[in-house]
Amino acid sequence: MTSDQSVLNGLLGELSQLWQLDGLTLNKSGRCSLITEDNIQIAIDLAPGSSDLQLLAGVGVLHDSDREQQLTELMRRNFEHVQLGQAYFALSSQSDHILLRYLCPFEDMDINTLTNVVGNFIQIATDAVKQLNDLWGAEFSHEPTVNYEPRVNYDPNVRHYADLLKA
């Protein structure tokens, strides 16, 4: 484990206590995974070859029959939809899974920043899944392929989790 991964692991431990989750730690691969209440898989790690924090969410699967249309729509949404913030859609290098990806500098990361980044990313991912399901219908699946724990009891009405620290 690198020194940055050790710091991230400590912050994840604090986040785990804050959100009352068990086991929010990096695994042997250096990744922490969780599932939201909306059944969206979120992965947290340090981006390979950089010092950026990386958040990934599985938001769907491409279908062979509409592949070109779906890829075109995802590219358009990457450019036009400000709701994504600085997150963007990407295609897994190992499958046809559509991911939502967000990178941010890890240097000087503290628990307030991590809490806000993860909480906001969960909301963006939740909104993105809803929009894609509305666009492509019920056959568009965002179900996680592996049932990771823990689950996040995420309140969509709370946009900034730093407020929880003040309570």
UniProtKB/TrEMBL annotation:
Top-rank taxon: Bacteria
InterPro entries noted in UniProt: Tir_chaperone
GO biological process, one term: protein secretion by the type III secretion system
Listed SUPFAM superfamilies: Type III secretory system chaperone-like
Protein name per Swiss-Prot or TrEMBL: Uncharacterized protein
Upper taxonomic lineage: Bacteria, Pseudomonadati, Pseudomonadota, Gammaproteobacteria, Vibrionales
